[in-house]
Amino acid sequence: MPIQTPLILLTGPLGSGKTTLLQHMVQSSALRLALLINEFGEFGIDGKLVKGKNLQIIELEGGCVCCSLMGEFEAALEEIIETATPEAIVVEATGVAEPDALVFDVSDLIPQIRMDGVITIMDADAMVAFPDVGHTIQVQIKAADLLLLNKSDLVSPHQQQSLQTRLRTLNSSAPIIPTTYCQVDPELLFGLVHHQKVQPAEYSHQPEYESFSYRPTGPLQRSCFERLVKELGPEIYRAKGFVPFPDRSYLFNYVNRRWTLEPLSEEETGLLVFIGSNIKPKEAQIRESLRACEISQVAPSPFTNAAS
């Protein structure tokens, strides 16, 4: 039998740190890697942020890799095997993906691939702020061969211990490693060997999250944009993208009311993606506020978090 290429699946809630871990794996591993990044939303952001030698990236956008894009996912894997001959494949699934169906397909339907392991990244700070764990996140935790409790620096030692106990009630076997910025020994990330017996399942996938994207036509006034971000409502859980300010482009990351703007070394075309629950009623208002922040507008107006 030909040598099978190991596949590592990264899963976890929106904004937990999957792309950060992906960057760490690329920078710290000597393996020739191929990456499949499944973006939730119309446009891809994460693939542009991951750079490294011996690297090939394929992005699947606009849906969940565990269901609506499964055919495209299989075709992408076959293309990678034929053209890149990687030593390992890393798949970053969207934060709303349930890994069960994906693991089954990889294990049984793609003979060139073997499932090396499922790594689930959890956001410690978000778990404290939102104690209720929904169905999709429970599935992600239960499927894990390795659990990373990321952003552990944002919670107290007592809270961290309590969170580990909660995770252990859903997954009794996976190691749990507290991390900051997903910094973990790369030796722990490869060769996990997926042991769980997976049964095929039919999913009537009801996404808990919606998304929309916005492309600015010109630079944004920074103070106006920051005011908009500070006043985003709780329905926006995750946002990310490239923000053009007059001085340069910035990488924007927003998770659960926390956000950062990091200067980019290269100019990027402006693009913002917003993800959340029941955000469609707010979409027009947010778009209007973003347009008002464009410097070409005469009188920028602040975003107000008015009730629907």
Automatic annotation (TrEMBL):
It catalyses: GTP + H2O = GDP + phosphate + H(+). Transmembrane segments: none annotated. InterPro entries: CobW-likC_sf (IPR036627), CobW-like_C (IPR011629), CobW/HypB/UreG_nucleotide-bd (IPR003495), P-loop_NTPase (IPR027417), Zinc-reg_GTPase_activator (IPR051316). GO terms for molecular function: hydrolase activity; nucleotide binding. Gene3D superfamilies: CobW-like, C-terminal domain (3.30.1220.10), P-loop containing nucleotide triphosphate hydrolases (3.40.50.300). It comes from the Bacteria. SMART domains: CobW_C (SM00833). Keywords: Chaperone, Hydrolase, Nucleotide-binding. GO terms for cellular component: cytoplasm. This is GTP-binding protein. Signal peptide: none annotated. Belongs to the SIMIBI class G3E GTPase family. ZNG1 subfamily. It holds the Pfam family cobW. Zinc chaperone that directly transfers zinc cofactor to target proteins, thereby activating them. Zinc is transferred from the CXCC motif in the GTPase domain to the zinc binding site in target proteins in a process requiring GTP hydrolysis. Residues 209-294 form the CobW C-terminal domain.
